[in-house]
Design a protein that fits this description.
The complex is a heterodimer of chains A (about 130) and B (about 900). Chain A is of the alpha/beta class and about 130 residues long. Chain A has helices spanning about 15-30, 40-50, 65-75, 90-100, 110-130, and strands at about 10, 30-35, 55, 80-85, 105, 110. In chain A, strands 2-1-3-4-5 form a five-stranded parallel β-sheet, sandwiched between helices. With about 900 residues, chain B is α+β, with helices and mostly antiparallel strands. Chain B folds into five domains: about 10-120 and about 585-645, Four Helix Bundle (Hemerythrin (Met), subunit A), CATH 1.20.120; about 150-305, 2-Layer Sandwich (Dna Ligase, domain 1); about 310-425, 2-Layer Sandwich (D-amino Acid Aminotransferase, Chain A, domain 1); about 450-575, Glucose Oxidase, domain 1, CATH 3.50.30; about 645-865, no CATH class. Chain B is built from 27 helices and 31 strands. In chain B, the strands form five sheets. In chain B, strands 25-23-24-26-27-28-29-31-30 form a nine-stranded mixed β-sheet, sandwiched between helices. In chain B, strands 15-22-21-17-18-19-20-16 form an eight-stranded mixed β-sheet. A six-stranded antiparallel β-sheet of chain B has the order 10-9-8-7-13-14. In chain B, strand 9 and strand 10 form a beta hairpin. Classes of the chains: A alpha/beta (about 130), B alpha+beta (about 900). Chain B: Belongs to the PEP-utilizing enzyme family. Chain B: Catalyzes the phosphorylation of pyruvate to phosphoenolpyruvate.
């Protein structure tokens, strides 16, 4: 019997606790999640594999989140990106949307909130893959 | 008058008329009230993060603390503006608290002299950096779970640091290790000092180090305290290492020393010996490989009174090797447990069910010819076991039941299977000596648990309802609690489903696995206890009592806010395998510690002598203080403004309340200077709602209750607030109102109530505060009365705090209609309680009255709408 394809999610946040709390929640919801606290490692990973959804923080040391998500969208335009950040401003929100971000979730967030957004992002991606949405 | 003159006259003391127009001051007063509520809101918000329902990081903690500190500071500024700088001392208190918060955030902990030694019973939660993991866990077992552990004390990591510093050991250790690191790099070094000899040098230096005088004193003090409690001067201790650090337990387990049966006059040597063991060769190598910095070594030492053990052993709450995961494993031997832990002696082994009634599954009893016993003068010795015990099992199945039950409570609390060292004394009492997380191997040959698949097989009974008070996974049988009196009937290991949160549920907290309620507060007493015990808990679901039936098996995953049909044990195991326990993470503990300086309320009664700026220990105290003083001030200002006659008008009512009303902005219909007003003159929304409840609920019993203020006031020794002590207001109840605001100080019989409410069409601004303080009857009756009031308030969705005979209830952000109903209820409650003192003979009376009152009130309110009964979330905006 063919195993069902599980959606692949990449999480990048320089705070380990965010990764540690998100991963089990996503797994319980039926997704596979890989977590990174260093943007260099995350960058390397996306050269190896395409993810369905990428969740990334914006303000981090080293490569900043905006640059990372730009890179992701460049390689895989159909991968949906969700931005999480504790420094939510109108400006960063606007910038993110301009770069093609799917949605923006301000920290702190409830687990349910992020799961809902991931679900919506995946729905859009599935539709896109099937060619329903340009 | 120009600006400068105005400012000068404003900031000069001794003036009775303020230079600012009253309207401006009143606006300032309103700002203070709003800022007050905002600050309380932010504190509640921070507390809610401990539920585990939110993902937050250090940044959140930093920014909330910054925002809160700002708000508190501005509150103090505003109060001083309002009161012509009467409370400048508050700035000092603020600074102290602010400073300690900043230090906490910067990663330093405060090191006052006393923190070198802490007794176990005085150990609060989350002190891992100070007392080490082992001691911190024991403190939780002792003080939160109330399980028996040996008395004793910890010598902290800060004592360790002072010890190293004063003996010049930091540098010495640093140098030696640097040498070793350098020599290791230079392959061709001539005579590299081996790690063994470096370790020996360091250990020697530690063992011969001088104990700082202050530390010596603290240790002696702790020993003396124990000698007094135990009424014995011949005390013996187990001296154990308790290191701090993530890897501490796993890598160094067994490598640090434990010394048994140390006489109190040999404690200092034992202490140094245990410290020295942290610098044994393998520990040094391990640390250097892992890149541990020298300053990161933090050794605390625990000194536990020795238990004269008849039998001892180890309990694994889950068998780490078995494919079956529903058994616990006990090993036991006669006498002390050290040889068992070291693996040098034969032991009995038992497997027991992890579920109640904790039945024995299998046992393997071996011949035990020798045992380790305490030597009378210190140390231990091996002795032969008497012939009749050699082949006898150490524990009966009844004893095993008790032991495993304790173990499961500990496992649920730490959310990890536990490796527990226990001892049984000659009185048949079990003691927990030590507990730590148990490493479980994953099932051999299985792929990673596909938790999502497994979970899909179980129907969802309820999802995304209510508020998560405490995250976590629990399995068990539902028990639907209908009669709050029947707490004894609540079975062990059940998932409790009940209508509302209640402080009384604290009694069953230790034996239940989870809680789900229809209505209730996420910040009240019960919620706090649920978090203390880490019992998965969801409140305010609106429907739980309608959905679940007693006896059905469910799995409560409070982390995801789902309830599944049946026991999904895999979810429990999945939680066990999560990388970190949320409650043990740095962020959780940091927030928990910070909130200790922020949310506990110490200032309780404005009429007590301890209601001063100097007594503010937390931000919450400051908020409380500012609130009370602001109200006092505005009343004062109103009196002064109006001149000697005062603007307090007497309210004529059917009920002889003797109520005086001060209108500070649109609370009454425009009047000529009437000294008396009637109900029809009142515009204030909250006041009207309250008085309606008071007068028209039918609760007011016109029986013979003394309202002779003169005589009972003389029997009260408390000081009065300035407003009430003003001779013009003596013997009066006082209300301060605007069209939307209502502040009432009400003395009725022996009861003293304060109601403070703001009700407008802006939902977000609405708030009501109710404070009830008992009178001069005995404490038992007063506590019963308080419990009754607290219970009623909870049923009506207030956030409740009870302190002996003081009850505080708060509710906010309801639509206007709902707020009016709450105030109506408060009015009828005040009415009803007026009589209650003499009638509260027994606890059973309390329950009777709760039912009676609630029924009657609900009946009346239902004549309007039912909306006030629903949990707040499902009410229309």
């Amino acid at each position: 019997m063919e195993t069902e394809h599980k959606f692949q999610i990449l999480i990048l946040d320089d705070e380990p606790i965010v990764c540690k709390r998100l991963k089990p929640a996503l797994e319980k919801a039926g997704y596979e999640a890989e977590t990174f606290t260093q943007s260099a490692m995350a960058l390397h990973r996306i050269t190896e594999k395409e993810f369905d959804v990428v969740i990334t923080d914006l303000k981090m040391e080293g490569l900043d989140g905006m640059a990372f998500l730009t890179e992701v969208k460049k390689r895989y335009p159909k991968t949906e990106v969700i931005v999480i950040t504790g420094f939510a401003t109108m400006d960063t929100a606007r910038q993110s949307y301009q770069k093609g971000v799917f949605d923006f979730v301000a920290k702190p967030f409830k687990l349910k909130e992020i799961l809902d957004v991931v679900e919506n992002a995946l729905a859009k991606r599935t539709a896109t893959e099937k060619g329903n949405v340009p | 008058m120009n600006v400068l003159d105005r400012l000068k006259s404003w900031f000069s003391f001794g003036k009775t008329t303020p230079a600012y127009p009253f309207a401006a001051l009143f606006k300032k007063f309103q700002n203070i009230l709003k800022a007050n509520n905002d600050a309380l809101e932010l504190i509640a918000d921070m507390g809610a993060k401990l539920s585990g329902d939110y993902v937050f990081d250090r940044q959140y903690i930093l920014s909330s603390c910054a925002e809160l500190s700002d708000q508190i500071y501005r509150l103090i500024v505003d109060l001083n503006t309002l009161t012509s700088r009467k409370y400048l001392e508050l700035f000092n208190r603020y600074e102290r608290i602010h400073q300690s918060i900043e230090e906490e955030l910067a990663g330093k902990w405060i090191l006052p002299q006393g923190d070198a030694v802490i007794a176990y019973e005085a150990m609060g939660q989350g002190l891992h950096e100070l007392v080490g993991n082992k001691n911190a866990n024991l403190a939780d077992v002792k003080n939160v779970l109330y399980l028996p552990t040996p008395d004793g004390f910890a010598i902290t990591t800060s004592a360790f640091r002072i010890f190293l510093e004063q003996n010049g050991l930091y540098q010495m250790i640093q140098q030696r290790l640097q040498q070793y690191a350098d020599e290791a790099e230079l392959q061709g070094a001539q005579t590299p000092q081996s790690i063994e000899s470096i370790a020996a040098e360091i250990q020697n230096a530690i063992r011969n180090g001088a104990i700082p005088e202050s530390l010596h004193r603290e240790i002696a003090k702790a020993v003396r305290a124990l000698q007094q409690t135990k009424r014995s001067s011949g005390l013996f201790f187990a001296v154990r290492s308790s290191a701090w650090g993530e890897d501490a337990e796993y890598s160094f387990a067994g490598q640090y020393q434990t010394i048994l049966n140390v006489a109190s006059d040999r404690l200092l040597d034992a202490y140094r010996s245990v410290l020295a063991s942290a610098y044994n060769p393998s520990a040094l190598v391990y640390r250097s490989r892992k890149g541990f910095q020298q300053h990161e070594v933090a050794m605390a030492v625990g000194c536990q009174l020795m238990i004269g053990a008849v039998a001892s052993g180890v309990l694994y709450t889950m068998d780490p090797s078995a494919d079956e995961r529903d058994v616990a494993l006990v090993s036991a031997t006669w006498g002390l447990g050290a040889p068992l832990v070291e693996g040098t002696v034969a032991v009995d082994t038992y497997t027991i069910d992890r579920q109640p009634p904790f039945q024995l599954r299998s046992m393997h009893v071996v011949r035990k010819p020798t045992m380790l016993m305490l030597s009378p003068d210190g140390g231990t010795e091996t002795r032969p076991v008497s012939p009749e015990l050699e082949n006898k099992g150490c524990l009966s199945s009844a004893q095993l039941q008790r032991l495993v039950e304790m173990g499961m409570l500990i496992e649920r609390f730490f959310k990890r299977p536990q490796d527990i060292e226990w001892a049984l004394d000659s009185d048949g009492k079990f003691f927990i000596l030590q507990t730590r997380p148990l490493k479980i191997r994953s099932k051999t040959g299985s792929t990673t648990l596909d938790i999502a698949e497994i979970v899909k097989r179980h129907p969802v009974r309820m999802q995304d309802r209510g508020i998560v008070v405490q995250r976590g996974v629990a399995t068990g049988r539902v028990f639907l609690l209908e009669d709050p009196d029947d707490l004894d009937g609540v079975p062990h290991a059940s998932i409790l489903v009940t209508h509302h949160t209640s402080p009384r549920l604290a009694r069953v907290m230790r034996r239940i696995h989870g809680i789900i309620t229809d209505v209730g507060s996420q910040t009240g007493h019960m919620a706090t206890i649920a978090r203390e015990f880490r019992i998965p808990c969801i409140v305010n679901t609106g429907m739980a009592t309608r959905i679940f039936r007693t006896g059905e098996e469910v799995t409560l995953d409070a982390t995801q806010n789902v309830v599944y049909e049946g026991r999904v044990e895999e979810l429990l195991y999945y939680e066990f395998t999560e990388e970190d326990v949320f409650e043990e993470t740095y962020e959780y503990r940091l927030l928990h510690r910070l909130l200790k300086r922020i949310s506990p309320l110490n200032l309780v009664d404005p009429h007590e002598s301890n209601f001063r700026p100097a007594d503010c220990k937390t931000y919450h105290d400051i908020i409380r203080f500012v609130h009370e003083k602001a109200v006092e001030e505005i009343v004062d200002l109103e009196n002064r403004r109006a001149g000697s006659s005062g603007q307090a008008r007497e309210l004529v009512m059917d009920i002889p309340l003797g109520l005086c009303v001060i209108d500070i902005g649109g609370g009454l219909l425009p009047q000529s200077d009437e000294k008396r007003i009637g109900r029809q003159d009142i515009v204030s929304v909250p006041m009207n709602a309250f008085l309606d409840g008071l007068e028209r609920s039918g609760m007011w019993n016109s029986g013979p209750v003394s309202v002779d203020f003169g005589s009972f006031m003389s029997s009260m020794t408390r000081t009065m607030s300035p407003a009430l002590s003003d001779p013009r207001n003596a013997g009066r109840n006082l209300a301060v109102i605007t069209n939307a605001y209502f502040n009432l100080s009400l003395k009725l019989g022996y009861h003293y109530n304060i109601i403070d409410a703001y009700v407008s069409d802006q939902v977000n601004d609405n708030t009501a505060y109710f404070r009830f303080l008992g009178g001069v009857t005995d404490m038992t009756r007063r506590s019963r009365r308080a419990a009754f009031i607290g219970e009623v308030l909870e049923r009506f969705n207030f956030r409740v705090e009870i302190r002996g005979d003081l009850v505080i209830g708060r509710i906010k952000k309801c639509p206007r209609k709902i707020m009016e109903q709450k105030l109506w209820m408060l009015g009828s409650l005040v009415s009803y309680t007026r009589q209650l003192d003499v009638q509260m003979h027994e606890d059973a009376d309390m329950e009777k009255h709760t039912q009676l009152f609630c029924q009657q009130t609900l009946a009346r309110l239902q004549e309007g709408t039912e909306a006030s009964l629903l949990p707040i979330e499902s009410q229309p905006p």
